[in-house]
Write a structure and sequence with these properties.
The protein has helices at residues 2-21, 23-45, 48-77, 107-128, 133-149, 160-168, 172-187, 256-262, 284-303, 315-327, 335-339, 368-377, 386-396, 398-411, 420-425, 433-445, 484-488, 490-493, 533-539, 548-556, 597-603, and strands at residues 209-214, 218-223, 229-231, 235-238, 267-272, 308-313, 344-350, 383-384, 431-432, 456-457, 460-461, 471-476, 498-503, 523-525, 541-543, 562-564, 578-579. It is an alpha/beta fold. The strands form four sheets. Strands 15-14-13-12-7-6-4-5-2-1-17 form an eleven-stranded mixed beta sheet, with helices on both faces. A two-stranded antiparallel ribbon has the order 3-16. Helix 4 packs antiparallel against helix 5 (133-149) and helix 9 (284-303) crosses helix 10. The protein starts with a helix and ends with a helix.
């Protein structure tokens, strides 16, 4: 108890420090929340028809609440009689799955249903109000965040699972939960997976290979062959730098890298540097020149290939599209781009966006005010901290990624099981200020990438329509980051031969859906393109299991010859530097310092 008291004191000091340092942002967030609801209130008060709708919704809630009380009394009086709930949790809502929510005493079932009725009422009221689409989306998002936070599952006295467990363990679960809370306060984030289980290079990012090139922004990995012969055309994978590359080399049964190597491909992977504050000057053009173009050049030089296959995942796909547009330009560009003209054999876009008209749930809160605030906060350079990015992504699915762990870790004192995907998602990366603000303003908010010549990157007008290489696009049906309809628009923006596949599941699990006997996730393919997503979906055929073999067969139909597998990675000019996965992927998202004015001028 003494140790707990000491830890609690430290945690209290940290919370106090963090509270005051974050107070301006908290006040701004509260102000935005208040403005949204004030706007809603004005709409209701100033419009009798809307007021009538709101009153009708409220009276309906009161009737449902009265019916709920009636049924609860009847259930209490006659527990063996058939009981029909007034309202039930939505399919997939895990918060109230435990039997304790429905057992005697029925106090908890009443609280659960009452909460669901209140949630239903508030969302219906918001939905009934006529607001500009962006404002309504923002209000819906904020309301849902508020309702999620107030779920009875998040509080000890209204969570029957936590109360029962505390009784069974004589309070030890509460002590353990308090310990978990103090540790997470010290760490600064909620623990979502048993992080002690995994080690990068041993359990994750395990495929053998070597770092064959590095600069300030990337390490380039070449993987060891696993077949006697390999394709003469290597594959270069461009992962996002919002997260680390090893989601595509997670472990043996979920490694796209290992799968490709086993298919006889020579695979190169970019491992992005986790930027520190000194690297805030890096812009999108640096990711093109020092990242994509340099990786293409080195991959070709090592293998002797004239062309390469490419795959871009998430933001890596956005970078791939920009790079392909630059090297396809018919106008003179710059040395690095001129060298790589006609150097790409195929392009694969995996859960990636070139059109940002719909960015999923986060689109509800991305507006001029948010973008301007980010630009103002980061105008002096530095980085967007990885922990802040992680919190933003967690907010998209708060029940699954925040409140589930609040109940599990703190109320019930449990340790989350090891889960490689969550370990990866918590392995944060910083983002250079210059790149991030450009990306938020020009690509996400103003959606200029899809507009011909609206952007100039590396002083080259970007026109996606000039990209004519054979292209394979993969969307996933439940993607909350790159919605499948948005991913589909890539087929309408580019000019070459096109294939589209729609995988099951979401942004991550749909991407790493490896072939297996269980066929947990399937896919659709071979729909008719050119007439919109809905028409494609109606005409598509059902595929079984993973989309990986389908894509691999498509790659194999493109001009490829096989050659003897290389005995070693690298080459005379690009010797192996260190074993894969290299140093960069192991760096943590730590902001070392804020640059002084002279240092900023030096970098500029």
């Amino acid at each position: 108890m003494l140790e707990l008291a000491q830890e609690a004191t430290k945690a209290g000091q940290k919370l106090s420090t963090d509270f005051f340092s974050n107070l301006p942002a908290q006040m701004k967030s509260f102000s935005e929340f208040s403005v949204s609801y004030l706007t809603m209130a004005n709409k209701v008060i100033g419009n009798p028809e809307v007021m009538a709708k709101g009153q009708s919704t409220f009276f309906n809630f009161l009737q449902n609440q009265a019916e709920l009380s009636k049924r609860m009394f009847e259930k209490q009086a006659n527990p063996d009689s058939e009981f029909v709930p007034v309202i039930s949790p939505a399919p997939g809502d895990r918060r109230f799955k435990a039997a304790e929510w429905n057992e005697s005493p029925y106090y908890f079932d009443y609280i659960k249903q009452n909460y669901l009725l209140i949630s239903q009422m508030m969302l219906e009221i918001v939905d009934s109000i006529e607001l500009e689409k962006k404002s309504k989306s923002k209000l819906n998002f904020q309301t849902q965040q508020y309702l999620d936070a107030l779920s009875p599952a998040n509080f000890f006295m209204t969570n029957p699972e936590a109360i029962k467990l505390a009784g069974e363990t004589n309070g030890k679960s509460l002590v353990k939960g308090y310990e978990n809370l103090l540790k997470d306060i010290e760490k600064g984030s909620i623990t979502q997976s048993d992080e002690s289980t995994f080690e990068i290079g041993r359990d994750l990012a395990h495929t053998k290979g070597s770092v064959v090139y590095e600069n300030e922004l990337i390490q380039l990995i070449q993987y060891d062959p696993l077949t006697e012969k390999v394709s003469e055309v290597p594959l270069l994978i461009l992962p996002p730098w919002i997260n680390k590359f090893y989601i595509l080399d997670l472990h043996t049964d979920r490694s796209l890298v290992e799968y490709c190597v086993k298919q006889g491909q020579t695979v190169f992977m970019i491992s992005w540097k986790n930027p520190t504050a000194e690297m805030g000057y890096l812009g999108f053009e640096d990711y093109v020149v020092k990242g994509a173009l340099k990786a293409i050049e080195v991959s070709k030089a090592i293998t002797g290939a004239k062309k390469i296959d490419t795959l871009g995942y998430c933001l890596g796909g956005t970078l791939l599209g920009i790079t392909l547009s630059i090297i396809a330009s018919e106008e003179p560009t710059f040395l690095e781009a001129e060298r790589e003209k006609d150097s790409v054999n195929t392009a694969t876009f995996l859960a990636a966006m070139l059109d940002f008209s719909d960015v999923g749930t986060m689109g509800a809160v991305i507006d001029e005010e948010l973008v301007s605030n980010l630009e103002n906060e980061l105008k002096d350079g530095g980085v967007m901290k990885g922990e802040d990015m992680a919190k933003a992504f967690n907010a998209i699915r708060a029940n699954e990624l925040v409140w589930h762990y609040v109940a599990n870790n703190y109320l019930m004192g449990k340790t989350p099981p090891p889960f490689s995907v969550l370990y990866w998602s918590c392995d944060n990366t910083n983002l250079p200020a210059r790149m991030y603000t450009y990306y938020m303003r020009n690509l996400i908010f103003e959606n200029k990438l899809r507009i011909k010549n609206a952007l100039r990157i590396c002083n080259v007008p970007i026109d996606l329509g000039r990209i004519k290489v054979p292209t394979f696009v993969i969307g996933t049906i439940d993607d909350h980051i790159s919605p499948c309809r948005t991913a589909f628009t890539t087929t309408e923006l580019l000019s070459g031969e096109m294939e589209f596949v729609l995988g099951d599941s979401g942004h991550i699990m749909g991407a790493i859906n490896a072939p297996s006997k269980k066929h947990k996730y399937n896919f659709k393919h071979n729909g008719e393109l050119g007439k919109g997503f809905e028409h494609w979906e109606k005409t598509a055929k059902q595929g079984e299991g993973s989309w990986w073999p389908n894509w691999s067969k498509w790659i194999a139909t493109k001009p490829h010859k096989t050659v003897p597998a290389p005995k070693n990675t690298g080459s005379k000019n690009y010797p192996a530097i260190e074993p894969a996965p290299g140093r960069y992927v192991k760096e943590k998202a730590v902001t070392i310092k804020t640059l002084s004015a002279p240092e900023k001028e030096m970098h500029v």
